[in-house]
Amino acid sequence: MTAGSPVIGLRRNANDIEVFDGLPGSVSPTACVGGTPTVTNTAAIEMIDNAAGQDTDFNVDIAGGPFEPGVGDEGAGTEEIEITIGGTDGIEDELTILGGTGADSWRMGALSPSASGVNLNPPEAGGADGDDIAISGVEEFQIASDGFPAFTGGDDTVDASGGAPFTGPLDLPGTDLQQMGAGPGDDVLIAGNDPVDLIGDSGDDTMTGGPAADNLRLSDGGTPGNDVATGNGGADFCSYINQGGDLTVDLRKTTPQNTGAGGLDTLSGCENLAGAPTTTC
Fold first, then answer.
1. Does the pTM exceed 0.70?
2. N or C: which end of the chain has fewer CB within 10 A?
3. Nearest CA to 234 among 261, 185, 206, 270?
């Protein structure tokens, strides 16, 4: 697919692969030349922005199930359709990957100095097949493991720290916004090399920053849980910016502390604190 529209989408519906000139589900699917693509007659999908000067939003919706088995023998890992996302014009291209209602487990990391990959199959941890989705040339990258805007739950893991078969942590040069969000559930969010917003919600979430200046958003307006936030390197923020009610937070404490409206949280490695107007530091 080449992007003639500023918003394009991709999702699985039963065995069909649906392509949209807009957000998945917001418009009717676009008819493809040569017939309907399915998960059994398709080997690879490319979503490329060839429209010079256009801000293109790519959307990949996994809620309908994985894009597998595809056509052909990969030789290693789970058989699936390989998806390539390419923003080529340097004009604020954006990729959003949307999860479903179940427990998603996604791993991400670098594939080369200019590209990174997303592995959507948790059994492949440490295996050879890392690039279920290969990404390059995007300026904004967002993960919503429970879908958007209606977060629906599941204990999700989104890990951008790399590990085999990646060459290192997630690293997308030129991105000016990265967000990894999870909805209700006991979620695990781990940053890569780039600055990122790690967005928790209801449940007992664990968020771990990387070497850059990250923003760890605890609870983020959901029912407060007992969260663990670790900043690691960089000038990190622990944030309660969307949490209403009275909050008391002490960044000097690295043991569990009762923050009030934010729950019983454990904070470490955060150099900065952001809160709602009622927050007491």
1. yes
2. C
3. 270
